[in-house]
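Morning!

As promised:
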Amino acid sequence: MKYSDLKSVLKNHKLRVTDTRMDVLEFFVKQNKALSFKDLEDRFSDYDRVTLYRTLNSFTENGVLHKIPDDSGFATYGVCYDTCSHDHHRHDHMHFKCKQCGEIKCIDEHIPIISIPGFEIHEANMILTGVCPNCLAA
Amino acid sequence: MKYSDLKSVLKNHKLRVTDTRMDVLEFFVKQNKALSFKDLEDRFSDYDRVTLYRTLNSFTENGVLHKIPDDSGFATYGVCYDTCSHDHHRHDHMHFKCKQCGEIKCIDEHIPIISIPGFEIHEANMILTGVCPNCLAA
DNA sequence: AAGGTAATGCAATACTGTTGCATTTATTAT
DNA sequence: ATAATAAATGCAACAGTATTGCATTACCTT
């Protein structure tokens, strides 16, 4: 994905184009896996912690990233491809977390629609845990 | 569930029987929903915060409770019925979180077994979000 | 009932994330 | 291109969540 495309992503989500945002977005796209705040802090030590937090928040609020539920105590984020805009979020795909390397990946498979009598269901989130191909090979 | 049964639960999970543990376990069972640390703190203001945290941790490590993934920033826990022991955890049931009242409930429905080529999957976790029957009625 | 081992309470600390405010930067309209 | 305006940044301080070390207390085995 080239510079102008990254820029379009920001513009399309009504976000101003700044160095921080471009660098963070590029990092997400290149890494192609879910990233935590710590990943960003390690990579971008020259940006202020607060700015990185705010970048994650504005990206999440505007549909560039989605927050991935996890019981580890700190948030991880993944890129929203195509489906999300400012007012319409859809993340009904699965996430996989590797027990060995800790990496979280978005799995391109939809979560089966589920209905439970008496409940009104808006969103479904699914996290699979196990061992990823990389760690299995090693 | 009577006192002696609660005691058995602790014994079966190789945990010493103490006041804190009995009270916390009883509270979980009676509430019949997922609870956060804050819920415990509000209820048991006479116990030390640290003790409550340690109770949650030992319960989780020994299969009395399971930690429910959630993107809200603080952990919630649910009772493990029957399926879990010290060395074998199985929590492939669903959780429902109500957007309105915030309550998290364990849904007694199993998650369909999923396999993804190249991945070894040990556990599946699913969180549904929406509005619960109580809030729909109100 | 006594001894060993684990749980508790307190204080201090670490970690994760947010808020207020002055300054700088990006965008819009001229 | 430039000025006006609105938002993003950096810094400092703070808030909330959770953990660690250690002395004391309680549990449980024999």
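The helical segments of chain B are 3-12, 19-31, 37-43, 49-61, 133-137.

Hope this helps with the figure draft.
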